[in-house]
């Protein structure tokens, strides 16, 4: 497989999926790297929720070997989220009459939590990021949703948010974690809008793209990973957990005890995915 070098023209999109999603994506990327597909060198990174964590980690230039080891050893400071919160968020979004109402309802769910556990949550995100400044050599974009307006927001180095704030906002699952205040606004998880927000690729126009989606299904019509990828006009590869990875990740995406298993499963899955990626990364 071709070594993509430091100027990989393929955009890398990393979707939401909780703690197990982070672990699976890190394992997958480490396995792909071992097989010769250096996706960590992608110039453009778009991260949503769990994917915002991994995107920021990749942009820090910390080795995937090290990030993989963190997942296996449980090096980050994690706290288990309330199990019912995630289900409540999904139910809230799916029961809304339309897409905008769904985002407003999700925002209200997040706002209803106030800032409970905000300090502990901040420490968790802080422990995940090896570097807390926006990269100068990458186009890193982090997706969140404005809790009050229901609109999607994309943070980057030119915006009002620090990298730590942006990642914390992107991963603020309503009903699980508190909203994140940034520059007078309040934000919730970007995954409430779409599990990957892969449609943002159209604003960038890369030569190709790889979309990694731990949870490809959508809570709203037209926003699933498969639907958004199928609408793209550039060569794009979508990677989702295979059967073994799904078993390893389990049903509770917020369970820290599943991290090591999910990371190993992602690494093993990469052996198969690397062959599929070859035509794409050699464009």
TrEMBL record:
The chain crosses the membrane at residues 12-32. InterPro entries: Acyl_Trfase/lysoPLipase, NTE, PNPLA_dom. Keywords: Hydrolase, Lipid degradation, Lipid metabolism, Membrane, Transmembrane, Transmembrane helix. GO terms for biological process: lipid catabolic process. The active site is at residues 49, 189. GO terms for molecular function: hydrolase activity. A motif (GXGXXG) lies at residues 16-21. A motif (GXSXG) lies at residues 47-51. Residues 12-202 form the PNPLA domain. A motif (DGA/G) lies at residues 189-191. The keyword Lipid metabolism applies. This is Patatin. It comes from Gordonia jinhuaensis.
């Amino acid at each position: 497989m071709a070594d993509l070098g430091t100027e990989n023209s393929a955009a890398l999109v990393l979707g939401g999926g909780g703690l197990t999603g982070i672990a699976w994506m890190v394992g997958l990327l480490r396995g792909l790297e071992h097989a010769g597909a250096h996706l960590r060198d992608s110039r453009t990174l778009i991260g949503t929720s769990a994917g915002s964590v991994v995107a920021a980690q990749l942009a820090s230039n910390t080795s995937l070997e090290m990030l993989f080891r963190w997942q296996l050893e449980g090096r980050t400071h994690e706290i288990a989220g309330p199990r019912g919160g995630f289900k409540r968020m999904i139910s809230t979004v799916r029961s809304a009459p339309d897409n905008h109402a769904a985002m407003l309802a999700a925002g209200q769910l997040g706002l209803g939590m106030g800032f409970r556990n905000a300090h502990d949550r901040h420490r968790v995100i802080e422990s995940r990021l090896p570097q807390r400044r926006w990269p100068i050599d990458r186009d890193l974009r982090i997706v969140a949703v404005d809790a009050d307006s229901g609109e999607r927001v994309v943070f980057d180095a030119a915006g009002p948010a620090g990298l730590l704030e942006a990642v914390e906002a992107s991963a603020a699952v309503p009903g699980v974690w508190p909203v994140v205040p940034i520059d007078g606004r309040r934000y919730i998880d970007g995954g409430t809008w779409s599990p990957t927000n892969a449609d943002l690729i159209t604003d960038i126009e890369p030569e190709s793209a790889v979309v990694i989606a731990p949870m490809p299904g959508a809570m709203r019509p037209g926003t699933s990973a498969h639907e958004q990828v199928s609408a793209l006009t550039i060569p794009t590869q979508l990677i989702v957990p295979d059967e073994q990875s799904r078993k390893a990740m389990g049903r509770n995406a917020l369970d820290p005890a599943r991290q090591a298993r999910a990371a190993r499963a992602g690494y093993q899955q990469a052996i198969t995915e690397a062959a599929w990626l070859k035509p794409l990364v050699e464009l």
